[in-house]
């Protein structure tokens, strides 16, 4: 389903937080557009003042009713976002965590050589931040809800140049399963979305990324690269009641690439 063809307000009355919009190529932006097209109300965060000028017009485009900074490495910012949501909305229906970071030299090196500080930063921003968001979202999801994070196939297989991020994504996917088990009795569902490669700013930090794109297009059964809208629409489906008994998934949106050698 392409975004312009979305007519049904299937998520009308649902409110959610989207973290990870940096620009109009961000996967989080594809999610914001899709969730808004389906009628959801959004809270959107931006990393810092430098990012604000790029994110603000996008937040306005989807009529985000909450717009505030969130750098997950800064103490207090997590809490401020969830306190504001509680004060303004009183509850939360979905959360999309679409962020990852590894220092350039850490990401470029072998897993075997990874320095402790680079490892901890990678895990902190790319993995623990999702667990903390789930922790803060849980009391607001009084009527259940859904939590999403973005992962990549490099968690399952050795993908050249993905290096320590593959280790972080493997931990993230495991956290999804544990949290799905822990939060399921409260009607809170937890998923990792695993898109095929997309030319975003985060991806530009991965050496030889163009080759990864070319290989995905050449080898995926669909013979096509995914778009951020493809990711947004599929994620929105999982947030809908139609998917109420689906949880703990690693959902590949990759034209079937993961299924072939
Ligand atoms: P992007 O650069 O548009 O988004 C990355 C986001 O992470 C940015 O908004 C950035 O501000 C945010 N971020 C980094 N450090 C942060 C911090 N300390 N606090 C808060 N936010 C922080 O790139 P993207 O490709 O849209 O990445 C989104 C997610 O999708 C990431 O988890 C990435 O690993 C994952 N992913 C990307 C691809 C791809 O090919 N691009 C494929 C699969 C999964």
In short:
This protein has 261 residues and is of the alpha/beta class. Helix content is 41%, strand content 14%. It is built from eight helices and seven strands, in the order βαβαβαβααβαβααβ.
Largest sheet strand order: 3-2-1-4-5-6-7
Number of helices: 8
The backbone outline, from C-alpha atoms, is: globular
> Which runs of at least 5 residues are low in confidence (pLDDT < 50)?
none
CA distance, first residue to last residue: 27 Å
What fold name goes in the CATH topology slot? Answer: Rossmann fold
Instruction: Report helical residue fraction.
Output: 40-55%
What name goes with the CATH superfamily? NAD(P)-binding Rossmann-like Domain
Largest sheet: 7 strands, parallel
Give every kind of bound small molecule, once each.
nicotinamide-adenine-dinucleotide
CATH class: Alpha Beta
The chain-level mean pLDDT equals: 96
Written as H for each helix and E for each strand, in order along the chain, the element string is EHEHEHEHHEHEHHE
Rg, Å, rounded = 17 Å
Q: How many beta-strand runs?
A: 7
Characterise this structure.
This protein is an alpha/beta fold. The chain has a single domain (15-256), classed as NAD(P)-binding Rossmann-like Domain (Rossmann fold). It contains 8 helices and 7 strands. It has helices at 27-37, 49-61, 77-88, 104-108, 116-137, 163-183, 209-219, 228-239, and strands spanning 15-19, 41-46, 66-69, 94-97, 145-150, 188-195, 250-253. A 7-stranded parallel β-sheet has the order 3-2-1-4-5-6-7, with helices on both faces. Strand 5, helix 6 (163-183) and strand 6 (188-195) form a beta-alpha-beta unit. The longest helix is centred in the middle third of the chain and has 22 residues, at 116-137. The two termini are 27 Å apart. The relative contact order is 0.15. Residues 20-22, 26-28, 47, 51, 70-73, 98-101, 125, 150-152, 195, 197-198, 200-203 line the site of nicotinamide-adenine-dinucleotide. Residues 20-22, 26-28, 47, 51, 70-73, 98-101, 125, 150-152, 195, 197-198, 200-203 line the site of nicotinamide-adenine-dinucleotide (NAD).
């Amino acid at each position: 389903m392409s975004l312009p063809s979305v007519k049904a307000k299937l998520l009308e009355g649902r409110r959610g937080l989207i973290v990870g919009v940096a620009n109009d190529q961000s996967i989080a932006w594809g999610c914001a557009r899709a969730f808004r097209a389906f009628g959801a109300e959004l809270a959107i965060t931006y990393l810092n003042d430098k990012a604000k000028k790029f994110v603000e017009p996008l937040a306005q485009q989807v009529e985000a009713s909450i717009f505030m900074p969130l750098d997950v490495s800064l103490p207090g910012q997590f809490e401020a976002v969830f306190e504001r949501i509680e004060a303004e909305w009183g509850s939360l229906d979905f959360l999309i965590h679409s962020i990852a970071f590894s220092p350039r030299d850490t990401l470029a090196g072998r897993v075997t050589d990874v320095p402790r500080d680079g490892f901890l930063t990678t895990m902190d921003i790319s993995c623990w931040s999702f667990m903390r968001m789930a922790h803060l979202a849980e009391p607001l999801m009084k009527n259940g809800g859904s939590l999403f994070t973005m992962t990549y196939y490099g968690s399952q297989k050795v993908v050249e140049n993905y290096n320590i991020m593959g280790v972080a994504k493997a931990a993230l996917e495991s956290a999804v399963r544990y949290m799905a088990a822990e939060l399921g009795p409260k009607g809170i569902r937890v998923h990792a979305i695993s898109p095929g490669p997309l030319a975003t700013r985060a991806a530009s930090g991965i050496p030889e990324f163009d080759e990864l794109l070319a290989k995905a297009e050449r080898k995926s059964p669909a013979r096509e690269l995914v778009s951020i809208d493809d990711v947004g629409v599929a994620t929105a489906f999982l947030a809908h009641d139609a998917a109420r008994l689906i949880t703990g998934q690693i959902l590949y949106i990759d034209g079937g690439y993961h299924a072939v050698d």
